[in-house]
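#random but structural
TW: two for the price of one
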Amino acid sequence: MKKLYLSLVSLCVLVSSLSALSNLKLEPLWEFSLNKNGVPSYMVPYVWNMSQRSMAVHNDVLYINNMGNGNIAKVNTADGTTLGDVTTTLIANPNFWYKNCIAITDDGEAILGSSGTGSTYFIFTSCDLATASTTSLGNVTVNGMGRSDYFDIYGNRNTAEGGYIAFASNSNKVGYIPMANGVFGTPVLSGQIDAAVSSLTSALAIVKDENSFFYVFQNPKPKLFNKTDFTFVEMAGVDAAPSGTNSGGAYFKFKGKEYLIIAHGSFGAIRILDITAGLNKAEEVFITDDLGNSDKGKSPAITPICVDVQADHVKIFAMAAENGIVAYKFQDNSTVGMDDETSQAAYAYANNGILTVKANGGEKITVSDLSGRILYTGIASEAVTEISDINSGQIVIVRIGEVASKVKL
């Protein structure tokens, strides 16, 4: 298997060769880092202390929560400029660990939480990103899980269809919490995954789909777990990450292919792996440069990473404490064959007030306004779905599966 190691420093030199090999392209959208142009004063509170350890993206806004003061920074995904803060009334102490992680449901509910420094329950808080109002979701007991600082979300909490919260613990266990109709169900916890590993740091779960999620920690081999019985596949086919690599990662599907992003070292560099053939047959397509060299990047043991999948590109965000923050644009310029059903592009357009959505049968369709308010949700039953009960004259965001695009009605 031929492996391609590509640093952004050499991107300009190798771009023609890269295009010939894979048609993949990765370029910085914006970057504020020690290694490039420094961090502007407005960005300093967002990335320049140990309180920012998690971030999430929704409707073209990057949200970076600050567990120290309970606020959530809003960053324009297009250029990295500030959009202000979601200023909550959550207190900093003694419960700051309970605001350590942020994850956002499909319908735009932000959930903050973690197990704190404890090992038997999560504390979750719901935050309305438009009004900054917060609602305690109470404690969810998971006896024997061990400390869990981070989690990920599939689906929604407040719908009948529901979803789940996936988590991993520093005691080498994984699990999930079902949720639907505004209620958390009974948690399900695995046994210890590797008896030879007694403790970990910043273990992380990354949702793949309704039936599986990844397990990433300070170890070079992520695992993909089946949610039903906790059987797993371990990463293979690529070299191990450097010793001491932070936890951190994200998953996305784009143009019929599947990708896993993981941290590479402790200073903001990331690796993008093509896992279309399986996690155990991973192919490395990009490694980016570090954002800096401050050892403070090692202290949280986490490199926050998140993605925003659009119709023609994917935005990838990565951050390293006291080193910087960066946004990349990922593209695949290959030609998609129309006989490849899994690769056919989903799209939406409007005509005479009717929104037409092309999607494969069974794909979830969600339409929201620019504030994140859900206007329509449904499952495509055939190739073309027409939606006529949304007021015309507005710009809406149409999400088809994991692909989002803006449409003017």
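TW: number two ↓
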Amino acid sequence: MKQKFMTWVKSRLAVMGYALPLVVLSIICGLSTVGAEEKVPVFPQSTYDAYIIYQNLAIFWIFILGLIIIILMKLREIERTQKLGADNDNEDAPRLE
């Protein structure tokens, strides 16, 4: 019983030996940037510039939706040609030589 307990303690100490330096390092790195944070405005304060940003976002999403629609159309076309059997090789087809 004592042997099992000592093995368990050694395994836990080994895990803590690897984890403890990582925890200390992450705390030190987290504390080193506390005073260095600077407030940066994400969106500009003027309404004209904000309008341009929102307009660009709307155009971006319209193009993304357009690409999705084009991909879906191409997938349907591929399915249609596979149903017709146009993708299979025909041995009786004439060949150009």
